[in-house]
Design brief:
The complex is a heterodimer of chains A (about 190) and B (about 425).
Chain A lengths: L1 H34 L1 E2 L3 E5 L9 H5 L7 E5 L35 E7 L2 E6 L9 H8 L5 E5 L11 H5 L5 E5 L17
Antiparallel strand pairs in A: 2-7, 3-6, 4-5
Chain B lengths: L4 H21 L32 H25 L2 H18 L6 H13 L5 E2 H17 L2 H6 L1 H8 L9 H7 L2 H14 L5 H4 L4 H5 L4 H16 L3 H5 L2 H11 L17 H5 L5 E2 L4 H7 L3 H30 L3 H11 L10 H9 L3 H37 L9 E2 L9 H5 L5
The chains are: A alpha+beta (about 190), B mainly alpha (about 425).
């Protein structure tokens, strides 16, 4: 009996010793990590100046349809009749005919304002984030159309599946307070 | 001022054509100029504003942590104090609905390992408090109360638990062999997270596609096959893959209190052994059998001395495979591709190569960055290999260790505190 209780005490002693060391290890890891903690939550966002319009945003997002959609920075738009983001380069006329539109889902609405200005509005429900209009607008236009991650669709994955394959590393973590990088509010220093 | 439309269109078409041709040869647009100035409208037109829906409120993220805390406490109370299997079952259903389907299975404590790793490895990465708490809280609870997280608070565990239909008992050697996979998964996850390569726990999570109700085809296949497997081999992910389970089993082995099968004493009726789908109940040891089987200090010493050998083999294997492992990293892959196949530079369809060439970054810089990452993989793989060697050695050592046991007890490392055995035990308090 004496032997049993002694060996039990020894086992319990070792057990509590290991428990203490595990608790210390856990405590030190958490303490160290706490020193690097930030109170803000981070969300994913596309830097429109880094984006090269590769089209992966439409296919790589874990959501279908993608959480990436095109947004229009109206402050930068030229309201042109011949919109580089709306019309295909080989358009036969400047009308809303589907054969002339760049957008594969016809998500851009073209509306006449006054001579010779047209307004281009994106129907978010139809946009798939393929960046064809962005490419056109950036090439011949002001670049007012650009892709952004829309946060009521985005699940804020721990690792963004699109960010993993973005060829220009344009998707980065931004603070949740300023979760959009819309051109106009956020513009790179202009080279004058 | 009226502008002649036809002339304007012809002119713009020409400019458009020239620009498109120009653009095809230079994709780097960094300075955005307003080529066409914003018009001043005469007709009183009001421009629409760009709608920017806000992300989930920060307060709700902290609410998730509170829910985790409440669920963990409840699971612990139900398993240890109230001893109610029904309670744990319904709690796990709630966890499945809340953390699984409502929160889409992200963020989870399993993936939080990677966040913590990255916060140590990358000074530029800021870990959020919620991620850290998701990592720490279950471990802290487990250190004192056993793996109640697995039973009540983990959505992946909950979904596997609910599909158990006819659980098979696996042979011991299979259990032990497959039990090494979580250690490998943990080492690789930490290695890949620390080098900033990938979050493989998130990427290969079989159930997140089901929680999101939206996934690529191969993820759906993976999820469904795990669930089908789970009908006959209970909790396959938990037992044979979960990297967080490694940490939890360490904490649980030395927990202060743990779920007990019987509320008072064991009457050796063996009813509990039929109830456990996970082979997590240890049988009482028969001393006579043990003496016959030849276990003893000599065998123990042999196995113990072999452990350094396993570790060296592991380190060697790690060193041999570090080149191959490093290719998972985007930069290393690109550098290798361009060095071994320089003709890829002329391939217009390869987006990564073309973007790299257009970015203005030199090959030297890319190769330098790749070498830094490969160096990290060199040391990391050796550490991972040595760790796995140690695990293999310890697993083998455990097979020759004799532990005197009189009663039927849950294995403190493997028991997930589901409470089925408590239901089956006929002993009244």
């Amino acid at each position: 009996m004496e032997d049993n209780s002694r060996s039990k005490n020894r086992r319990e002693f070792i057990q509590s010793g290991m428990r203490l060391s595990l608790a210390l290890a856990l405590g030190s890891v958490s303490g160290l990590a706490l020193s690097k903690v930030v109170k803000d939550e981070y969300v994913w966002q596309i830097d429109p100046f880094e984006c090269t319009q590769c089209g992966r945003c439409a296919t790589e997002c874990v959501m279908t349809p993608s959480a990436v959609k095109c947004v229009h920075a109206y402050d930068l738009c030229g309201y042109c009749d011949l919109c580089g983001g709306y019309f295909k380069p080989d358009a036969n006329q400047l009308s809303t005919a589907a054969e002339n539109q760049l957008c594969p889902t016809a998500a851009i609405e073209r509306r006449f304002i006054e001579e010779p200005y047209f307004e281009y509005i994106i129907n978010e429900d139809l946009c798939i984030g393929c960046a064809k209009c962005v490419e056109g607008c950036t090439a011949f236009g002001n670049g007012s159309l650009h892709l952004q991650i829309i946060h009521d669709i985005c699940l804020n994955c721990n690792e963004c599946a699109i960010a993993r394959v973005c060829p220009s590393n344009a998707i980065k973590r931004v603070k949740a307070e300023n979760s959009y990088l819309i051109k106009g509010d956020f513009s790179k220093e202009q080279e004058s | 001022m009226k502008i002649n439309n036809m002339d304007m269109i012809k002119k713009m078409k020409l400019i458009f054509f020239l620009f498109t041709v120009f653009y095809l040869f230079s994709t780097g647009i960094s300075a955005q100029q307003q080529r066409f100035p914003k018009p001043e409208f005469e007709s009183g037109y009001e421009q629409p504003s760009t709608i920017t829906p806000e992300p989930r409120a920060l307060a709700l993220e902290y609410f998730d942590v509170l829910v985790l805390l409440v669920v963990l406490s409840l699971a612990t109370w139900l398993a240890l104090k109230k001893r109610s299997r029904q309670g744990i079952l319904w709690l796990s259903v709630f966890t499945l609905i809340y953390f699984g389907f409502y929160r889409n299975g992200c963020i989870c404590s399993i993936g939080a390992i990677q966040n913590v790793t990255l916060s140590f490895a990358d000074p530029g990465y800021a870990i959020s408090l919620t991620a850290l708490l998701f990592f720490i809280l279950p471990l802290a609870f487990t250190l004192f109360f056993g793996r109640t997280f697995c039973a009540g608070a983990c959505p992946l565990g909950a979904i596997q638990d609910l599909v158990i239909f006819k659980p098979l008992s696996l042979p011991k050697w299979l259990n032990k062999t497959l039990g090494i996979i979580p250690y490998i998964y943990l080492s690789l996850a930490v290695l890949f997270a620390a080098t900033g390569t990938d979050f493989i726990i998130c990427r290969y999570d079989p159930f997140v596609g089901i929680f999101r109700m939206d996934a690529k085809f191969h993820m759906v296949v993976l999820g469904i096959s795990f669930l089908l497997m789970g009908m006959f081999v209970a909790r396959p992910y938990c037992r044979f893959f979960c990297p967080y389970g490694v940490l939890l089993s360490w904490m649980s082995r030395f927990s202060r209190w743990h779920l007990t099968i019987t509320p008072a004493r064991c009457i050796q009726c063996k009813l509990c052994t039929n109830s456990c789908p996970f082979d997590a109940i240890d049988f009482p040891t028969n001393e006579k059998e043990v003496v016959k089987s030849g276990l003893g200090p000599k065998k123990f010493l042999t196995y113990a001395l072999l452990i350094p050998l396993w570790m060296i083999m592991g380190i060697f294997a790690g060193e041999r495979s570090h080149t191959w492992l490093s290719k998972a990293n985007q930069d290393v892959y690109l550098a290798e591709l361009l060095i071994s196949n320089p003709e890829m530079k002329n391939d217009p369809d390869n987006i990564d190569v073309q973007t790299f060439l257009a970015s203005g970054k030199t090959m030297e810089t890319l190769v330098q960055e790749a070498e830094v990452i490969r160096r990290k993989f060199y040391f990391g793989s050796m550490i991972a290999g040595g760790f796995i060697g140690l695990v293999v050695g310890m697993t083998l050592l455990n097979t020759v260790v004799f532990r005197k046991r009189q009663d039927f007890e849950p294995h403190k490392g493997n028991c997930v505190s589901c409470g089925r055995c408590m239901d089956y035990c006929p002993v009244e308090k």
